[in-house]
Each structure stands twice: as structure tokens, then as C-alpha cells.
Amino acid sequence: MFTPARDLFADLTPDQRAAVEHGEGPLLILAGAGSGKTRVITRRVAHLLQCGVKPWSILAITFTNKAAGEMKHRVDALAPGNKVWISTFHSLGARLLRQYADRLNIDRNFTIYDVDDRNKLVKDALDRAGIDNVKFTPERLAGAISKAKNALQRPKEYEQQARDFFTQTVARVYTLYEKALRQANGMDFDDLLYLPALALKLNEEFRAELDARFKYVLIDEYQDTNQAQYEIARRLSLHHPNLCVVGDPDQSIYKWRGSDIRNILDFERDFPAARVITLEQNYRSTKAILHAASVLIDHNKQRKKKTLVTGNPQGDPVRTLTFDNGLDEAEGVVLRIKQAVEAGRFRYRDHAIFLRINALTRSLESAFVKHGVPFQIVKGLAFFDRKENKDILAYLRLLINPADTVCFLRAVNEPARGIGKVSLERLVNWANEHEMTLTAACGNAARIPEIKGKAAAGLREFYRLMTELRAKIDLPPHEVIREVLDQSGYRKMLAETGDEDDADRLANIEEMITAAKQFHDEDATRTLADFLEQITLASDVDSHDEKADSVSVMTLHAAKGLEFPAVYMLACEQGILPHNRSIESGKDEELEEERRLCFVGMTRAMRELHLCHARMREFRGQITYQVPSMFLDELPADVDRQDVAGGKNTARAAIDEWRSGYRSAGGRAGLPPVKPTIPAGDGSGYAVGQVVQHDEYGIGQVTDVSGFGALRRVKVRFPAAGEKTFVADKVKLRVVKRG
DNA sequence: AAACCGGCCATTTTT
DNA sequence: TGGCCGGTTT
Known about the structure:
This protein has 739 residues and is α/β, with parallel strands linked by helices. A hairpin with a 2-residue loop joins β16 (605-619) and β17. Residues 649-684 have low confidence and may be disordered. It binds a DNA duplex (15 and 10 nucleotides) through residues 63-65, 88-91, 114-115, 137, 189-190, 192-193, 253-254, 256-257, 356-359, 380, 413, 416, 418-423, 454-455, 536-540, 555-558, 576, 579-582, 593, 597, 618-622.
């Protein structure tokens, strides 16, 4: 090895340094929360490059695309212009499947099926197999299929070990689903791991080639890998066992998704020569926070003891806050944040609010808007989940993959072309009989005797349209989308109604076109297919904008890997955290995962940590008494426990009072949730979060800015009048306070 | 073929 | 509470 440049090590501790410096051979880094593991992986990649390792022989796997992007950025700063592969497991899988499509005997133009698409396909399979007398939902069956794939069980293998009625049903559906998926040339999320893993397992030539190609493999968050991912990691490291994994068993929170904590616990068994480095020095949190989190996690029985230490100051005590009800909690937290900012203690972006479940974001939104506090809800696909965007995406996917049945069925009659349910059913049957894709059958519509009149004409028109558009798929992504929007009649459908909502929808599609343009501007070699893949594989945190000065709201799962100066964890109540599902399961294992989840949330905090709960909470229209989380009881005695319920008690009569107060204060009922948009530096003068004044409606807060030029709309939520949409160019709004 | 309505249902976390 | 499905009407 060459003598490495000084600067790579200057700011590292001896343990970190050892991990970075480690040469050949397997390496396990047990990195406690906040111990700088990302830095270690990044430096290690840079170090390998400095030692003369070829960039293309390094493969680094992260948990999110965002983390991959950041690592790429940092590695590039340390070793400019390198070609190291840095991606998530899923992106890696997609890339391998496309690159080696011919050898693996698959069509490289496959489309990636998200959970919705998958469930639809499972439902179809169910209908076609005539399995509707059973109570198993498509989601549940799809979940079981997903598990099977994670465990690398093919339909036949699964069938052989299916013993009870449920698993036998799953076996039948699995077989049908796989067939449908392959016919549609689709890959579900699990396939992106499962197929490469199987190929590596069954095809030694393929395995050896990739093993030799990726001589150094580094994997972050190893405690959350599932069996398929494990298989990939291990089989890429047989001849060149330079596998470096980093993880923390205390932060394993994805067991429900098939991850297996044994992967990290058994690493030394899998690689007896492995060197183990433990990082226990925490650089993130105050002593108070670290102590509280350590005491909590110590309640887990199935755990290898580990003691985190920090040289940071003691800091403020960890605080628990007791509120009377969920609305008070939301408002109380927002106000506390606002005060902290106004007092100059923190900026908005220093704050994060963590939730166990997404459903809890609603009341928070109202509170944020009410008090003019800027916020972002970190929930990735919300924008692309809108109907209009999904419709356009269906066209795009169908252009690239004509076999995509789910997209065909979505696009074919949107806008309406007179093709109804019955005609489509006939088309699907005919296609199945003739073993054709729906697109091909559509081209043969004239030969299908049962389809006539308007439906036949509509299908003919749709086929012509798609053929025409397909000639343009090599244009830059945003141009293809514009062609689709114009040629398909979708724009016409939205433009001619004069409906305000339709104008909004059009503006949303225009926004997607802008996103595609940005995507293309960043790197002109990227295609439409790349754009679609990025959208599908995006994670929630990928949409997190840490530059915006707003409070971040996200689930505990999304919070992994992040850090914030001040953290609020809401609804620390029995049934929510830990979640009912885990309590009801009666399994310690599941309860311990909830505790780890709580631990992950707590250890995100650098300086202030507030754990909140309410005595009453409305859920699904029902008001229930809530019991504080058992985890709050498990915290050390030096935690500052504050009851801020303001004298309100828990007597029965109080419920009705509270309810009537809630109802009358609920003038905002029925308002759509605020779209989490990044305040755009787009020259419109308006940005989400701003407080503005309107002549008629008074003071309100901007909740959305969309569209461009004459199409630009600004959405404002008024306390009294509710949400209104204005044409930005026309409306007179005075900006009272910047967001 | 498409819009409309009413009852039913489920309720975690995500690449 | 609200989202979805299935039935009914236009």
C-alpha cells in the first residue's frame, strides 16, 4: 500500500482511522449511533482510490439514493472524476439487470412496478384464478409473495413447502402473478434484488465475473439487509473477500420488510477472517440525550451490550411533554419551535418532528399553517402520486415497455376514448388467448369481433397515437412528456373545462415537465427511462431538502441516518409507539424493534430532545384515551417531565367539552393536505409558508405554488375562508411575512 | 359508457 | 375519518 495523504486521517479517531486504513480482507464495523460511520465509509473509498485501487472495482451500497448522492459528492471531492459505483441495492439491481439483460435472458426495457402496480397485478391474478371467495386481500397476498422473494423462494419452491390454506393460496397466486409480471415485462421492487441474487447463486460464471469486477464492496446499514441482499453481498465477495460492512444492531428497524439482523450478527461466522472494529464514540448528541437513549435501549433483552460515550457537554435534560389532546400537542410543539426561532436559539431547519405513523401529519399541518411556521413533510412520492401525474407516467412507461399491462389499462381511456370496461375485458381476454401484449392486441382491434363501434375506433386511435409517440422516446425526457401531453388529448381534456381544479392538474403536469428538464439539464445523457426509474426508486428521504429553512416532519423510519439540533417525537403512546400491531403480536422481538425505533429517533437529536404524548387523541373520527408509551417509563430519572395540559383533566365530562370545542374550531375540516413543496426560487415572489394578506379574505398562508407563466397558481389557506387558489399574475396579495 | 351515490372497510413502518 | 368498491342512474 502507498502512503496515504495526511488529510484523509487528520480529523479521525484511532478506531475510525483503523477502519479507513484497513486493507484487504473482510471488515465489520459496528458503528453506534452518531459515531461517524458515513464519514468512515466515504474516507475508506477515497483511501482505496489513493492506494491505487481502480475506481470501477469499488462498489458502495447505501440505504437511500440521497445517501448515495451525498457519498458520490464527497468521494468526488476527495478523489475527483472517479467512477466508483455508489448506489442503493435496488438501483444496483436495476442496473445489473439492464446491463446483463441478454445473458440473464430478460428484456432490458422492463418497467419497475411499484407497490400499487404490484397490488393491481396480484388482484388481476386473483380475479382470473377465480379466487374471490377468500378473505385474503391482494395486499396481504402480495406481502407474502414479497417475503418469499426476499427469501429467494421461487414459486415452485414456495409451493412445495406450503402447508396451510393461506400459504397454499399464496403459492397459487404467486405462480400466476409471476407469469403476469413476466408477460408485462415488469420488475417489482423485490425482483431487483431477487433476480440478481438468484443469478449470482445459480450462475457461477456470472458470479465469478462480477466478483472479479467488484473487488471491494462496502455496505452501509448492513443490519437492515434481507436475505437477497445478503446473498448479493456474499457472492460478490468469495474470490475477493474485501467486503466491508457497517451497521448497528441497535438500529435495525426493518425486520417487517424482511431484513435479518443475523446478517450482521453472523458476519464473523460467514467470514472467519473478518476484522471487527467497534465505534462507540458519539459525536452527535449531548450527554443527556445519549444517556437517555442508552438507558432505553438497554431494556432490549436480545441485545449485545454496547456503551456509547461522548465528549459533548451534558446539555439540557431530555424532556417529556404531556398534552391534553393531539391538537394541543401539534400546536404546542409548533409554538415551541416558533419561540425557539424567535428567541434566536435555533433556525426552523434545525428542527425535526418524528412520527411513528404517517396519519399523524394532518393535525400538524393545520398547526403549522395557523402559526405561519414553514415546514416540509418528508414523504417522497406525494407529487408523482397525483392522478394526473400517474396518468402521464403511465403513457411514458407504456412507450418504453409496450407490454406493460397495468399502464396500458390506465392510459387507454384517459382521456376518454369511448373504451369501457366491457370492451377492455374483451380485449384482455383476446390478448390472453392469442398470447399477445395488450398493445399488440390493440393494434389488432379490428380482428376482434366482439369489439365494435366507438370502442373499436377508440382502440385504433390509441394504437396510432402510441405508435406515433414511440418514435419520439429518444428525445429529452421533458420533450417526450410534452408530446404525450399534447398528442394524447390530455392537455385538451384539462384545458377546455375551465375548471379551476383542472387548471391545477395541468399545472402539476407542467411541474413534472420542469422536473424532467432539470433531470436532463443535470446530465444530458440521461434518458426518459432513467427519469422514470429515478421516480420509482426514490425514497421518502430523497425528497428532503435540508437547505430550506423549514421544520422537517417525517416518520421515524425516514429519520434513520439524519441528525437535527432539536427533535420532537410525537404521540409516544401505547398503541402508536410501540404500535398496536407489535403489542398484539405478543412477541418480544416485535416490541424490541419498536424500542429500537424509539432509540433511532432519540439518537437523531444533537442538543434538544422532546418526547411528547397526549392524554386523548382523535383517530378515525374516534376519540380515545391514550396511555403514555411504556418507553417513557423506561427513561432515566433525570428526564424532565412536564405536564403542559393546562389543568385540563381526564374526567369523562371533559371529552364532550373538548369534542365540541374541536368541532367548532374545525372550520378547516375537509381541506386537502398541504402539498410539501420546496419553496421555489422561481421569481414568482410567492413561496410556500409565506403569510399573505388578501383584500377580501384577510391573512392567510401560502400552501402551494405551481405552474409557470400565465398558468402559475398560488394556493392560500385562510383561517376563515379555507383554501383558495389564485392566478399569481392577477391576484393582489401583500406579503406579510416571508416563509 | 360514465357519472353518481351509498355503504363498507381498514387502520404501520418502505426500497 | 375517508378511501374504495359495487351497484344504480343518466
